[in-house]
């Protein structure tokens, strides 16, 4: 097996570039010494072809539509595991035994309350503020309460800080929702498992008894598993970049939440629902929206379609679609938006524009329909994505800090501005 490639640059001796191979035979050229040896850098806007780290957390093959967490196929985890177990797997590297799982779950219960002072933060937000704003702000603010998380020290204390983030993010998210609808905050209950605890904080009110629907719990658990990690996407790379400066884990995760919010990334799940509603209100005009998405002079894109790495059906979207009908019928919900989504997908997948560009539904295409059936408003969809992604961000942050090759993230650039010029005093310009 060849271990290097030879690079011929104009006017220079041939340069040997080491070839790196991953455990699934992924190949990379190690160009870390390229500039030192040749004076050249590589230019790759959007990091389309750039590996930023080696990782043993998540494997994905976008051509074949494969996704595995720590070696376990996503299909199997979705069918057999729970979100808390998957979180443990991602953070610690292996599935927990019963004792480990119980202890991990206990930690998530014990840390679910937020400092009472933090409740006042909500008074500073208008009730119309997007819940991603309060989520990111308040996760960053946790550093003010847990100062031992500062800098490198936060790696040592990660077991406790990761439990705090995972546990408290639920409470913060549910309180944001309660604030937005003017209802009193409902405190977490240690006796309830992870998802049930969240749903109770979201939907129970002091004035009436609330019964947690097990089907809602299962649907949420499934969606959180599917969102738990996705290797070096925009938000995870943000968490790593911010963490590489030795910013604490709360600051790093808060940055990830903000990166996730963008409509081209996790924010797409809310946009998909808005798009489906628009189509519904336009009398189900699926063809008109497909035409708009294809028009190069129209900035409109089919939200929930396309992916940087999947050039095949996103395996997470496949699982969600398979569960959509079952979950909705179990919940007794008939949602016309599901039919519109299916029609839109069918129409797009027959169209040469989408076929030639390998554009398939991604994770955001069908997830909102399930969240809607559970009773979540669309502005909470990206918050739900963030809740699911927290263990992935923590695992990636931990792995980065434990990797002796980690250096502060600092890309280079090709400067295309003015050459050196002389300063002209203002009265002479
Ligand atoms: N609708 C219409 N055309 C599309 C779409 C879409 N959803 N997605 C990509 N295209 C077209 C582009 O216009 C481009 O066409 P061209 O070659 O004629 O210029 C081609 O497909 C390639 O698209 P790029 O934007 O270059 O692909 P990139 O990898 O940079 O972007 C992205 C990926 C951002 C996901 C893109 O597909 C998109 O905007 N999708 C809609 C938003 C979305 O659903 N985001 C969620 C992604 S999943 C996640 O982050 C959790």
From TrEMBL:
GO CC aspect terms: cytoplasm
Cytoplasm in keyword set: no
A Gene Ontology BP annotation from the UniProt entry: tricarboxylic acid cycle
Record-linked InterPro entries: Citrate_synth-like_lrg_a-sub (IPR016142), Citrate_synth-like_sm_a-sub (IPR016143), Citrate_synthase (IPR002020), Citrate_synthase_AS (IPR019810), Citrate_synthase_bac-typ (IPR024176), Citrate_synthase_sf (IPR036969), Citrate_synthase_typ-I (IPR010953)
Active site: 307, 364
Reactions performed catalytically: oxaloacetate + acetyl-CoA + H2O = citrate + CoA + H(+)
Pathway given in the UniProt record: Carbohydrate metabolism; tricarboxylic acid cycle; isocitrate from oxaloacetate: step 1/2
NCBIfam families: cit_synth_I (TIGR01798), PRK05614.1 (NF004126)
UniProt protein name: Citrate synthase
Species of origin: SAR324 cluster bacterium
Highest classification ranks of the organism: Bacteria, Deltaproteobacteria, SAR324 cluster
Designated gene of the protein: gltA
